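Here is the promised in-class demo. Please do not try to memorize the tokens; focus on the logic of going from shape to residues.
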């Protein structure tokens, strides 16, 4: 690729200013990139709570279209109402654009006092699946159910991306973080796919660790880790923990990456407590922009800006969150004045590798599944439900409450809620009509069932979890 300056080498980037401190820090970052002569043309688009008040939607279609067109966006934080109302804008953007990987580096910065001096971690969080499917149901007046979805194709796409990134960045170790001792099937699948893909990257030391152990070790010796890969929810939490290791949310950058598209944003939120005061730290968003420049192959611009930031912090100029007294403007001006002279001719940007969706992944051919039973989830406010022992070919096997077996046998001394998992199994293979017939019989017996799960066996192995206390 030629490095000759030309008009075509100006890259259009969608800019979302966001809510709270968003406008202050996006302006700061824009000023620094402009002063550094980065060849960017900003395509400003609305999103966020203020956008909701003005346009009636927190994420207008034109904003998503702009990101799809430009393939790259820099986003300020947006406010998400808690509890009811609109879905998170961030989650919506990630899902709509299939930005399946969240990349959050945590690297020690000069001049920032922390407990550790040589942290250099990359936290890679799966960005689509897990509990972030947002699939939740009230089952009874006392019980909410949430589905945690982990898939083989989703894990493969994300994990392969993680290994490629670790290889490209010359990392030595990659660690899979999970809770497969408890979440045996879901995290078990994630861990299994991790090792399956690891075999293609022999130069990387691949290992795994339980999430709880990781958290303890991170706050004792973070320098012993290198690249961490995590399912969505664990990644969300651990990346904030890692931000704390290097100076807090004000310095923690992030990028959401998919095939040929990416949205870069700080880890922190809209910080309503300091919005409009002119004291917000733009470092996290600036480092996110640096990540964006690397994504666009504008590596030398990225290095020059990061160096100016490090020089500024090393000289003791810091915002209040880092125990300094510089305002956002003063800090921004200091970074601009620390930009070293340009020692390269204009750098051409490379468009992201490909905006084409990945090839569909063929699901591994597996032996035939046999339908062997059902779990019926029953609403029973007056205690353990009295259920028919037989429903056609199905026999009542056990009833559990919040995961613990309560029937047959003595009821353990636990708090019972009004929602029971009732397991019926058959010795012969079933079909859907058997299930419909069984449910009809339950309804006739006055049982209020809320939902049903089919139970399968493959080669004699159960493809469902057992209750605590179930043989
Ligand atoms: P927050 O990250 O906005 O603030 C937590 C604390 O960190 C506050 O004391 C804040 O003043 C401080 N802080 C954060 N960024 C800072 C910066 N750049 N400079 C100096 N101090 C900074 O988290 P909070 O208060 O839980 O969330 C506020 C809103 O932001 C919520 O509506 C939340 O949903 C949203 N949010 C949005 C995100 C995004 O758009 N990417 C990410 C996280 C939260």
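The designed amino acids, position by position:
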């Amino acid at each position: 690729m030629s490095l000759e300056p030309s008009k075509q080498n100006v890259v259009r980037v969608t800019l979302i200013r966001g809510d709270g401190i968003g406008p202050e820090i996006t302006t700061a970052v824009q000023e620094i990139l402009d002063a550094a002569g980065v060849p960017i043309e900003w395509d400003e688009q609305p999103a966020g709570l203020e956008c909701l008040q003005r346009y009636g939607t927190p994420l207008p279609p034109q904003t998503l279209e702009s990101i799809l067109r430009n393939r790259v966006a820099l986003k300020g934080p947006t406010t998400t109402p808690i509890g009811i109302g609109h879905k998170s804008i961030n989650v919506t953007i990630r899902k709509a654009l299939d930005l399946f990987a969240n990349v959050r580096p945590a690297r020690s910065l000069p001049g920032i006092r922390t407990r550790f001096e040589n942290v250099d971690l990359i936290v890679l969080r799966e960005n689509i699946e897990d509990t972030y499917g947002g699939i939740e149901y009230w089952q009874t007046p006392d019980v909410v159910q949430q589905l945690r979805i982990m898939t083989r194709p989703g894990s493969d796409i994300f994990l392969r991306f993680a290994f490629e990134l670790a290889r490209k960045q010359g990392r030595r170790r990659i660690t899979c973080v999970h809770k497969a001792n408890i979440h045996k099937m879901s995290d078990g699948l994630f861990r299994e796919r991790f090792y399956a893909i690891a075999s293609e990257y022999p130069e990387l030391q691949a290992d795994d660790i339980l999430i709880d152990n990781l958290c303890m070790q991170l706050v004792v010796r973070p320098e012993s880790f290198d690249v961490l890969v995590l399912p969505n929810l664990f990644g969300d939490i651990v990346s904030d923990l890692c931000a704390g290791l290097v100076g807090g949310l004000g310095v923690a950058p992030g990028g959401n990456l998919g095939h040929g598209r990416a949205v870069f944003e700080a880890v922190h939120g809209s910080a309503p407590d300091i919005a409009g005061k002119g004291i917000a730290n733009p470092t996290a968003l600036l480092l996110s922009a640096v990540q964006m420049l690397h994504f666009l192959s504008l590596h030398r611009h990225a290095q020059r800006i990061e160096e100016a930031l490090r020089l500024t912090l090393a000289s003791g100029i810091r915002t209040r969150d880092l125990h300094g007294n510089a305002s956002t403007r003063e800090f921004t001006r200091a970074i601009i004045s620390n930009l070293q002279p340009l020692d390269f001719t204009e750098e051409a940007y490379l468009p992201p590798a490909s905006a084409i969706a990945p090839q569909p992944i063929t699901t591994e051919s597996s032996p035939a599944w046999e339908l062997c039973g059902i779990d019926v989830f029953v609403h029973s406010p007056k205690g353990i439900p009295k259920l028919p022992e037989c429903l056609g070919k199905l026999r009542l096997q056990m009833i559990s409450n919040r995961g613990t077996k309560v029937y047959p046998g003595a009821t353990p001394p636990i708090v019972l809620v009004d929602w029971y998992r009732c397991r019926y199994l058959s010795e012969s293979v079933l079909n859907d009509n058997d299930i419909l017939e069984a449910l009809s019989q339950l309804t006739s017996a006055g049982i209020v069932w809320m939902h049903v799960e089919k139970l399968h066996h493959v080669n004699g192995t159960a493809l469902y979890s057992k209750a605590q206390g179930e043989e």
